Amino acid sequence: SKTLEYTKRLSSIISSRNNVDISFRTPFNSELEISNSDSEELFKKGIDRQSNADDGGVIKKELLESDIIIISSPVYLQNVSVDTKNFIERIGGWSHLFRLAGKFVVTLDVAESNGSDNVSEYLRDIFSYMGGQILHQVSITNSLKDIA
């Protein structure tokens, strides 16, 4: 996908300038079931009972151990992808617990024509609510030449 391609390019640039290790989590290499946790447990206590049944627990551990987090999403109908939305819902309780406090976050959205502004703002807001410090926002809109 173009989003993965651009994410890898961005990660390579960050890695070369900061001497950091990169780990990729995508719907292609990770299993993340749709959230069915009780919202009170998730938002008040941060408990996600599914974390041990899929890769959710490992992904959360990796996020908490990261210095820089790159969150990327294609733009579909002026919004994030269903996979990105599911990921956000699975860590949604962190918006009440500020689990990303002190973490640098870079957002990346890739659109075919429009909707980048909406998605960029959404990702910035969500990860800020979780305590992340937005280091940079990247929005890529493919040109007509790219689409053809």
TrEMBL record:
Which UniProt key words apply to this protein? Flavoprotein, FMN
Please give one Gene Ontology molecular function term for this protein: oxidoreductase activity
Is Ribosomal protein there in the keyword field? no
Quick one: signal sequence residues? none
Q: Which InterPro entries match?
A: Flavoprotein-like_sf, FMN_Rdtase-like_dom, ISF_SsuE-like
Q: Which domain of life is it from?
A: Bacteria
Q: Which Pfam families match?
A: FMN_red (PF03358)
Domain NADPH-dependent FMN reductase-like residue range list: 41-137
What name appears for this protein in its UniProt entry?
A: Flavodoxin family protein
Biological source species: Streptococcus pneumoniae
